[in-house]
Amino acid sequence: MKKLKVFISGQKYFGEQVLSLCLRLDFVEVVGVCSPLDDRYVTKLAHRFNIPVVSAGTLNADTLPDNVELGITAHSFDYIGTRTRYKAKIGWIGYHPSLLPRHRGRSSIEWAVRMRDAITGGTVFWLNSGIDRGDIAYQEIVFIDPKLYAMEPIKAAKLLWEHELQAMGLKLIEMALKDISQGVLIKRPQKKEYSTFEPNTDVKDVFKPDLLMLEQFGSDSN
Questions:
Q1: Fewest CB atoms within 10 A around its CB: which of 28, 82, 153, 211?
Q2: How far apart (Å, rounded) are the C-alpha atoms in residues 58 and 222?
Q3: In b/e form, how buried is each residue of 151-165, taking b as 16+ CB within 10 angstroms?
């Protein structure tokens, strides 16, 4: 059986869970990962299975293995440049913990709480040159417990992620892998009229969020 050759750019617990998922699937072969060399999740697991590791911050078209068919971002802070995206034969997918195109940006869960959204969810989408702007592949919704509105947004966001959205991401990525391995590629353009983009809440100057620079200069040649 021909296996889908996958490369994962990610870190921390969610990155490890995505890597573990791919290792469990008999139709997937992980041909490499990109993660911080001192990451005790993705890097450690990759070494255990003798999977090549590209150091975080150095991923580009030259360091990406030639045989990659599908790239996956999983809690990755490496920007996937144009040449890097196109080198993967099928493309790149990522998971965003919101109902795209709503709440684009790094602090999407926190903004869903801050804005008292009744529902939120997760989206697996195809990466492009924009930030969280690629075509939608899979989505699922979850209701936000009104009790979370009374909490500090960052704490409420952590609970939503740990109890709902993290597991949802793994479920949706598995669905994507199964379909893609069988040649089924779902791509639905995002509806611009419903889009929102909020700044990273860790950035002090909310009028100059860090991701806007990537939005403006995202068509690099990496």
A1: 82
A2: 10
A3: eebeebbebbbeebb
Helix (H, G, I), strand (E, B) or coil at 220: coil
- Is the pLDDT reported for residue 5 higher than 50? yes
Amino acid at site 99: L
pLDDT more than 90, % of the chain: 87
pLDDT score recorded for residue 219: 42
The closest alpha carbon to 51, from 24, 91, 19, 27, belongs to 19
Residues whose CB falls within 8 Å of the CB of residue 170, separated by 6 or more in sequence, listed in order: 17, 18, 21
| pLDDT of 49 over the 70 cut | yes
CA-to-CA separations, 163 to 19, 62, 100, 108, 154, in angstroms, rounded:
20, 38, 20, 16, 14
Question: Averaged over 196-213, what is the pLDDT?
Answer: 61
> Helices (H), strands (E): how many in the chain?
7, 7
Rounded to two decimals, what is the model's pTM?
A: 0.90
